[in-house]
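Posting for a labmate who doesn't have an account.
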Amino acid sequence: MSAPTSPSSEAPDATLDLPTVEEELWSAPEDAESERFRPSRAGWFARGALWAVLAWFVLAFPVNFLSPFTLGVSDVSAASEAAIFAIVGLSLNVLLGYAGQISLGHQAFVGIGAFTSAYVVVNLDLAFWFAVAVASTLGLVQAAVLGAISLRLTGLYFALVTLAFGSFAQQTIFAIPKLTGGEGGKEAPRPALFDSDYRYYFLCLAFLAVVLFLDWRLTRSKAGRALMALRENPRVASSYGINVKAYTLIAFAVSGLFAGLAGALMAHHDEVIVAQKFGFNLALLFVLMTVVGGLRSRSGVVIGSAFFALLGSGHLLELLEPLTTNVFRFSLHDFLTGTIGLPIEFVALVVGPILLLLTITKYPGGIGQQIAPIREWMLGHRFDIHAGKVKEVEVDDVRA
């Protein structure tokens, strides 16, 4: 009689066999019929045309190239801010979507990265690229330290720790005049090659592309699959040999790295950065745009972040003003500021919770769920209106 085999010896390696994050949520089920499906020439042409329009909208439209429309400098600056917010959204998505941890102090990571980059350029008289590297590294370090301190905390308790860290940074670190420049703010000049708003937009776009690539590689690596297992059930993941603390720290470090990079880009985008900008309102906006965009959906998070960036700066309302005036015969700007008495800078914080409730009740996958059928079709799959369907919002084993 052969000796009984240990259950642990037959258990599969979860870090190797688990599906990637994007594959589980957003990809359509691959059965035999979908594997045999190949688009026709007309189908590939239609997909190529849509890809070309998307590339034009991202690359050519903001700089008025091959465009019947004319965008001003302020519009291009808003597009740059949208790209920066997309990096912040991807950063928070690593914690919220992959690790399942809610951060209410993410503005502190972004703010420290912003002031660090400005200090390195202005006070130390060093290059912009070195300042961005220092800000990103510092974001990684501070996030890893905070993660190490809070390893035993999850859910609401961890959210309270991040909230306390954000308040601490606002009351102490952001109150250091040599670092923040006092009430007048801190200068953060742009590099000579990207001093114009049009060139700086492409710089922000390039960094966004790098972050998207790194995020994509993370979800398809052993660490990404381990994070997926941790998020579903840390105890089960630990029983499969996954080092819970180590991979949780990896999530914190990557999130902090992206946040520090976004902070550096934000500082040199504004050219004068003030401490009042990095309050709790900004942290709440970050959470709203990430959840509404769609947890674990890169495309959804990018679109959601850009939407809230344009909404918060007032540029989206300016774009809608001609439509509401000519079609509906009323001024949206006057209605919000005059009739309701709502300042433009608070519109995003009013619209955000409404969209959040809609996301939780109707579209748990956020914008990512709504665009999933088109995204899958553009990637060569058969069009399926139910692609990317998500039943519930999942954060830290709490099903909303």
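Reply:
Got it, the structure tokens are right above this. Residues 71-399 form a domain with the ABC transporter involved in vitamin B12 uptake, BtuC fold (CATH 1.10.3470).
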